[in-house]
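fyi for ur records
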Amino acid sequence: MAEPFRFLHLADLHLDTAFRGRSEAVQEALRRATRDAFDAGVATAIERGAHALLLAGDLFDSEVLTFATEAFLLDGCRRLEDAGIRVVYCTGNHDPGGASHRVRALDWPANVDLVYSAEPTILTIRGGHGEAVGQVVSAGFTKKEQYDNLAAKFPAMDGSLPTVGLLHTQVAGAEAGEAHTPYAPSTRTDFDQPGYHYWALGHIHKRQQVFPDLPVHYPGNLQGRHPREPGPKGGNWVEIPPMGLARTEFVSLAPLEWQSATVRDPTGDHLDALVAELAGRVPATSAEQRLVRLELAGASPLADELERADNRAELEDQLAARLGALDVEVRPGQLHWPVDVSELRETPSPLATALDMRERAMTDDDLLDRLVPVALSPAAPSDAAARRAYLRELLAELEPELVARLVTGGGG
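which gave:
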């Protein structure tokens, strides 16, 4: 019986990201973590007997590629070549494949298929005895600003071999898509066609199966680059039997994990108590290293003290030591001194007026429309009912921020 088509799907490595605004230690740790994650991906592909490694674009972050990164990347591809593993790499918006771009100039080993044409290429993947085990249909970017729908060009396939579509694209409706420019935009219809067992996509950094009934997958970026990309990162290990459905398994590869948490109403009234409380709100992780961001909101007896940069720095240092974290960032911007809001509501003040108006706007459509006219809410849906529902979701979370902004500290 023929063996399943086995491959590792990676995307969005963004090698040589500058990580501006971080300390030198954090910058170096992030650069090293991205390389270590790719190394782990290469090792996984070899250990599991992959037929192919699929790279769905944005392998580099820009045209500025260091010699060290170039040597590192090509060495990884040669290790895969020695193991008989094919590499299929389609270009994306950060690493387009135009004639003048860096990706075309690299001395790729013979096992690497570099796909940079907008017209789909069909590649047959073979097993150890030369037999065809699968095929990859792929297209790439020749320029950064690719606004054509490349997925619409992919041909229907007969499904006689396990078939994978490989592309860097933004799928309409994908989770977290709003964080990315809609390059090579695509829709559900483009993927709902015969003969494809798995779609290996890149561009959106949040891991997901885009549609519950279609095998359209983003593995997420290989290594989180900032606090908005938290949690384990890695790639998808996929096996497609000759006459069956794709079996997909997320494989954690990144050695460094970003963690974010919001702590409301911290009660600690001295440094040691606050350190213990905040450390207890950060979830455990199996990652080798972690970077932590804590957003503090609501009432705290230490709200005034945490306005001082030196106090925050000491808190961050102690939290980093307690958690064994590479770095901790504490953001107390929504903290306020503990107050009795019910009492404040009864006392004439700007805060009492704002709280009353917020409550009335939760049920009064006319007031809501006057307070937030369409011109001031471009992010809201255009449908009136949906727009009001969206604005009321924001209003529901507004009270703590109003208190934080309009009540001064009372800690003496």
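The mean pLDDT is 91. thats all i got for now
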